[in-house]
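Supplementary notes for students who missed Thursday's class. We covered one full example, reproduced here. Read the sequence, then the structure, then the short commentary at the end.
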Amino acid sequence: MGVITAEVKGLRLVLETAPSLFSPLRADRGTMAMLSCVDFAPGMRVLDLGCGCGLVGITAARLCGAENVVMCDIDPLAVEIAARNAARNGVARAKTVLSDGFSALEDTGFDLILSNPPYQSDFSVAKGFIEKGFNRLKLGGRLVMVTKRREWYRNRMIAIFGGVRIREIDGYFVFEAEKRDARYANRR
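Structure (token representation):
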């Protein structure tokens, strides 16, 4: 186990991490690029999808209110460490859920779903995050993802959401898509 610090949105976070978790030595550059594109407001409902040690969810909880934030991950150690980090950073009421994507997650009506999906493997995980994420957002809610790949994500998000905004930051692509209709774009 180790400890990292991160400066995010004017907050100083101290986070426990572990060698088996994503980016165990420092805050990931892609995650930081994604967070630079997001404006949080008190009361926003936020899902940190694939939370790892909890950097994204804890940032959201500090700015939106812990009761409005859910952090989930498929890795039991990640969920355990994210919960400890939430308490360490003063947002113990943020909810942590052990879930393979959305499979064990009952919450809906999110304003924001934030994810740095595993993009080095096949696209099945990201496909599920995008398609099922659409259904968990409220109208006007946004899915924000960061990856190193552009075209597949661009095409998938346009197919589901009807459009996507893409920003390139520090070698990463930050995708932001808004739910404007209750139906997938490709089914209209």
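Commentary. Strands lie at 2-8, 11-17, 46-49, 69-73, 95-98, 110-115, 137-147, 165-169, 172-178. Residues 22 and 52 are 6 Å apart (CA to CA). If anything here is unclear, bring it to office hours.
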